[in-house]
Amino acid sequence: MVKICIDPGHGGADPGAVGPTGLKEKDVNLAVAKQVAELLKPICTVVMTRTSDIRLGNTQQADLQARVAIAEKEKADRFLSIHCNSFSDRNVRGIETFAYGPGGNGEKLARAIQAELIRAAGLIDRKVKFSGSSVYVLKYTSMSAVLTEVGFISNPAEEKLLKTSAFQAKVARAIAQGVANHLGKKLPEPKPAPAPAPGKLYRVQIGAYAVRANADAQLARAKKAGFNDAFIATAGKLYRVQVGAYAVKANAETQLAKAKTAGFSDAFMVS
Ligand SMILES: [Zn+2]
Questions:
Q1: pLDDT 10s digits, 202-257
Q2: pTM for the complete prediction?
Q3: 10 CA distance to ligand 1 centroid (A)?
Q4: How far apart are CA 58 and CA 79, in angstroms?
Q5: How far is 99 from 106, CA to CA, in rounded Å?
């Protein structure tokens, strides 16, 4: 099996770049890298330069040297460093991936990862770039190596995304898919999201009446207000006028807000 060394950038006393609201690059890098490692384990031998919030050396130079030394000692076939970008102009955004120079597996791996990242994340494509000597871990690793920048932590919108576990998972999956494509391997399918508990529904109710005619009148008001799927549910001796029933609570909350905006100020959720 191909051995890949995954390198979550920064760590410990070195936070990396810090976003406008304080999100630390080191934490995003580690969260993404750990997921990439798990996703790749079925198709690669994976080693990591760090798996916790630590720095590998007391200076930046020593830290970077230690990362390269791990990859060399492990005789990794590929080196993959994961970072977030940062720039003084907070409008700058997007994803880019570096290889040391053109040609060979470094460029191929960078292109495979960049393509999947852009497809999955939908951020601006800043393309594959060649670092030359400017990136230590690409210059000094003897194996094919790439460094991917999964978004600008300095951009408020992208910082917000990078903070979410959903986006981190999406990015991790894309990176792993890129590696798999490059190696000509198939990544195991993701586990399906757990289905909501059967039978449990969140209902949005805009009134409950003992007299059917009153319920009918409220139903007519609901339909007039655009709630075409409104209906009357009977429960015991009550006629409940409802404008929706949802398995997902967030959808019911959205509908509840819509009902309140439409003037049904007593609307509430029943589950
Ligand atoms: Zn970084």
A1: 999 999 999 999 999 999 999 999 998 899 988 788 999 999 988 888 889 989 99
A2: 0.73
A3: 6
A4: 22
A5: 5
Q: Are residues 143 and 7 in contact, defined by beta-carbon separation less than 8 angstroms?
A: no
CA of 140 to the centre of ligand 1 (A): 17
**Backbone dihedral region of 244: left (phi > 0), alpha (psi from -120 to 50 degrees) or beta?**
left
Distance CA(69)–CA(140), nearest Å, equals: 9
CB atoms under 10 Å from CB of 113, counted, come to: 29
User: 18 C-alpha vs ligand 1 centroid, how far in Å?
Assistant: 10
Q: What is the DSSP string of 174-196?
A: HHHHHHHHHHT-PPPPPPPPPPP
- From the candidate CATH numbers 3.40.50.300, 3.10.360.10, 3.30.70.1070, 3.90.1170.40, the one assigned to the domain spanning 202-270: 3.30.70.1070
Residues near ion ligand 1 (CB < 5 Å) are: 9, 16, 83
Q: Does domain 3-183 have CATH number 3.40.630.40?
A: yes
Domain ranges for the chain: 3-183, 202-270
| CA–centroid distance, residue 83 to ligand 1 (Å) | 5
State what percent of residues in the chain have pLDDT above 70: 98
189 is catalytic: no
